[in-house]
Design brief:
15 strands, 296 residues, 5 helices, alpha+beta, 27% strand, flat, hypothetical protein PF0899 fold
Length: 296
């Protein structure tokens, strides 16, 4: 167990365990093409290329489209998150240490899923949008350019477009009236009345579901990255495991007693990886994430 367990030896702390300032697992997996229950070490995703329509003469033969069929693949990676929980330590604290560590381990693996997906998105070869944050107008223009880049690549506007912004980029976006105000409505005619979007919540604007994510590459630095993408452009494959935890993550949980240590070992495991299915469906935006929030 962590050597800092003595910090929990308290008499009057609240009984509930709050995993303070820790993202509760992954949130991006449901926004990409998922394949769960993979048996084996490699997962394949089907991709059919673009076909071209042609004419034909009367009674003539139809020219086949010959759309290219490919199978992007990824090799599943194994990850573990575990820690020791000493029995006597449990007796000295008024929290359920075993379950606290179980949640913490599952959340850690969930965040690893997001990291794997962002690594794949970061490899896109599409033109990069420069996210400018010098003014309200510049921020709005940057957001629109991300959407325009999807449009330019003929990415379907079918309700499966997503975008993830760093906390600072999301705060910058909230200075744009049309993005933040409930006076504006989505394409279904509904106002933004479902609470303040942010982590694990999506705000629909210009046909894209936007959210804040604190785990994006370069977050908080001058080389931060944000992404706009289509659900079918990136895939995530999860290995088959006995048991399921951490919401939709395919995480196998195990709590075992070790008498020689007088401790439980709380462990979570998963196999999974991400793959780029269609590079044209992922747009990267670069920004200086240290810039102050615009005031005009």
């Amino acid at each position: 167990m962590s050597t800092t367990i003595d910090a929990a030896f308290i008499a009057d702390y609240e009984a509930d365990v709050h995993l303070v300032f820790q993202r509760e697992g992954g949130m991006i997996k449901p926004t990409v093409y998922e394949k769960d229950g993979i048996v084996g070490s490699t997962a394949y995703f089907e991709k059919l290329g673009t076909g071209v329509a042609t004419t034909k003469s009367r009674h003539g033969e139809i020219t086949p489209m010959n759309a290219v069929h490919t199978q992007p693949s990824c090799t599943l990676e194994d990850f573990y998150a575990g820690d020791w929980v000493d029995l006597l330590d449990e007796a000295k604290t008024n929290i359920d240490a075993r379950m606290a560590y179980a949640r913490s381990g599952a959340y850690a693996l969930g965040r690893k899923v997001d990291d794997q997906i962002f690594t794949v998105m970061d490899a896109t070869t599409q033109s990069t949008v420069t996210f400018t944050v010098t003014s309200y107008a510049a921020i709005q223009s940057s957001l629109i350019q991300m959407v325009e880049a999807l449009d330019a690549n003929s990415v379907p506007n079918d309700g499966m477009r997503y975008a993830v912004l760093t906390p600072r980029a999301y705060a910058q976006a909230m200075t744009v009236e049309s993005f933040a105000s409930q006076d504006y409505v989505n394409e279904a005619g509904r106002p933004f009345n479902d609470g303040a979007p942010g982590h694990r919540k999506f705000r629909e604007w210009m046909g894209v579901k936007w959210c804040m994510h604190p785990g994006l590459p370069g977050r908080g630095t001058s080389t931060a990255k944000c992404f706009a993408y289509h659900k079918m452009a990136v895939g995530y494959a999860s290995g088959a495991h006995a048991g399921n935890a951490a919401e939709n993550e395919s995480v196998a949980a195990d709590i075992s007693w070790h008498g020689d240590r007088a401790s439980h070992f709380v462990n979570h495991m998963m196999s999974g990886n991400a793959v780029m299915i269609d590079d044209t469906g992922v747009i990267e935006a670069n920004l200086n994430d240290t810039t102050a929030i615009a005031t005009s």
